[in-house]
C-alpha cells in the first residue's frame, strides 16, 4: 500500500513538473537595459511620440509583462549624441537608437542600412530588409563587432533641404557649406560642397549664424520644429538623397543572446511595429506642416531643376561604384541592394509609378 502511494505521488509530481518549471524560469528571466539615442530630448519621431524609441521601450515592457525594461536616454543625458555605437559595442549600454550612416567612418557599408541616394523608397527598403536578404547582410556586417541591428523607424522620403540662396544650377553648390550626412554628403562633396555632419540640435544655430549655408534634416514637421524656416527660405524637394530613412536599433550581441527566445521575438515585433507606426505618423503630419511653412512663414518650396537632379544622379553612380570598389564588404552589400532594387523597380514601374503619375 505504501509503495503504491509512493509511486502515485511520484507520477503526479512528474506530471506537474512540465507546467511548474517554466513559470518558475519565466519569473527569474527579467532584464533591465539602457538605451541611448543620437537625438535630443523631446524630439518627435526620434525620441518621443508614436513609433519612437521611447514608445518602443514602452511596447517592449508591456508585451513582456515587465520582464524586459529599457531605460531610455536622449542625446547628452548619458553620453554625447554620436557615441552610441561605441557605447553599445563596449557593453556600456545594451541599445542605441540612431541612423546607421552616422557610423560611415567606422563601417562604410553601414550606410546602405539607412538610405541610398536614388535608392529604395519606404516600401522597397522594408521589402529588402524583411524579405530580400537585407537583414541577414546587416547581421553579417555587425557580427564581428559584437552587435546586432534592427529597423525601428522610417521617415519615408525626405526633403532635399533648406538653402539661404536659390539653387538654379550645379554651379550653385560650389563652396556651399551644408549639413548633410551619409552617402549624399559624398555626392555633394564631389560637386564642391563643404560637407558638415551636425547633430539635429546644432543645425538651426549654425544655419542662422551663417556657419552653414544650407541644411538637410527630415521633412516639414520635423524641420519646422527646429525653426529652420527662420534661418533659410528656399526649401527644395525630390528626395534624391534620402528616398527613405531607416532608424537603427543597435543592440549589443552578448546582451541579445542572453535574452530567451520569447523576449527576442518581442523586441523584434516591437521594432517592426514602430517601423510602421513612425512612418505613418510622418505621413499624417507633414502635409499640414508644409502648408503652414508656405502660407505663414514665407517659405519658397520648389523642386530642384531637372539638370541638377541629372547631375546628382550621375555623380551618385560614380560615388557608389567607387565605394564598392574600395571595400569588398561594401561591394557585397551594394551589389545585393542594387540587384533587389532592379527587381523591385520593375514592379514599382507598373504599380506605384502609374498610380502617382496618372491617378494620384
Explain how this protein is built.
Helix 2 (53-63) runs antiparallel to helix 10 (261-297). It is globular, with a radius of gyration of 24 Å. It is 50% helix and 14% strand. It has 13 helices and eleven strands. It has 360 residues and is an alpha/beta fold. Helix 2 links the parallel strand 1 and strand 2 (68-73).
Features:
alpha/beta; 6-stranded mixed beta sheet; 5-stranded mixed beta sheet; 11 strands; 14% strand; disordered N terminus
Task: Map the helices and strands.
Elements: H1 2-28, E1 31-37, H2 53-63, E2 68-73, H3 84-90, E3 95-98, H4 122-131, H5 134-142, E4 147-154, E5 161-163, E6 177-179, H6 182-190, E7 194-196, H7 203-208, E8 214-215, H8 220-226, E9 234-237, E10 246-252, H9 253-258, H10 261-297, E11 300-303, H11 306-326, H12 328-350, H13 352-359
Parallel strand pairs: 1-2, 1-3, 6-7, 6-8, 9-11
Antiparallel strand pairs: 3-10, 4-10, 5-8, 5-9
Helix content, binned percent? 40-55%
What letter string, H or E per element, gives the SSE order?
A: HEHEHEHHEEEHEHEHEEHHEHHH
Instruction: Give the overall shape.
Output: globular
Structural class: alpha/beta
Strand order of the largest sheet: 7-6-8-5-9-11
Low-confidence stretches: 1-27
Short description:
This protein is of the alpha/beta class and 360 residues long. Helices cover 50% and strands 14% of the residues.
